[in-house]
Amino acid sequence: GENVGLHLPTLSVQEGDNSIINCAYSNSASDYFIWYKQESGKGPQFIIDIRSNMDKRQGQRVTVLLNKTVKHLSLQIAATQPGDSAVYFCAENPSSGTYKYIFGTGTRLKVLA
Amino acid sequence: DSGVTQTPKHLITATGQRVTLRCSPRSGDLSVYWYQQSLDQGLQFLIQYYNGEERAKGNILERFSAQQFPDLHSELNLSSLELGDSALYFCASSEGGNTEAFFGQGTRLTVV
Known about the structure:
The complex is a heterodimer. Chain A is mostly beta strands. Chain A has no helices and ten strands. Chain B has strands at about 5, 10-15, 20-25, 30-40, 40-50, 55, 65-70, 75-80, 85-95, 100-105, 105-110. The model of chain B has no long low-confidence stretch (mean pLDDT about 95). Chain B is an all-beta fold.
């Protein structure tokens, strides 16, 4: 599938455990962030977003944490399931005046049964 | 289903040729984004349109161009194709800027 040529960091997690995927973003002026999940052969799928005026946002089984001081974003997945196996990307919008999302390298999540 | 439609799903063409990829955004979305995903470079932002106007540009080659039409669908034109242009090309749409963007399933372009 896609990204097989990339040397993606891989996170292996036991089914039922919690997963934490990290992302370092580049631009201190970035004001909006999105986490995407990409399964093999499919387009990126929106998971959750967060604006720079927040430091935490929760969804269904997912939580995003934003630390602007160190330009770090994390995605926490609770009770990881086999269907969570995919490549996860963070994306940032570099500034409020722009309309583009810059993607990070991605992390491959493997869920072990 | 994200609501973003891309055609064709697959395209095989020869070097030097020109192709057009098409994207229909989600109903109501005014912004359209194009991305290239190669095996060795991840998702690269190419260009973005909002309500028919170009609003942001990434590292898009001069051989590539795009436009967004009055009905908000968008086309990405790739010309003088090279082997290195082989990639997945994704379109995404959003209501505006700084809102969640939803991706289509992509067009897999193979240049031979």
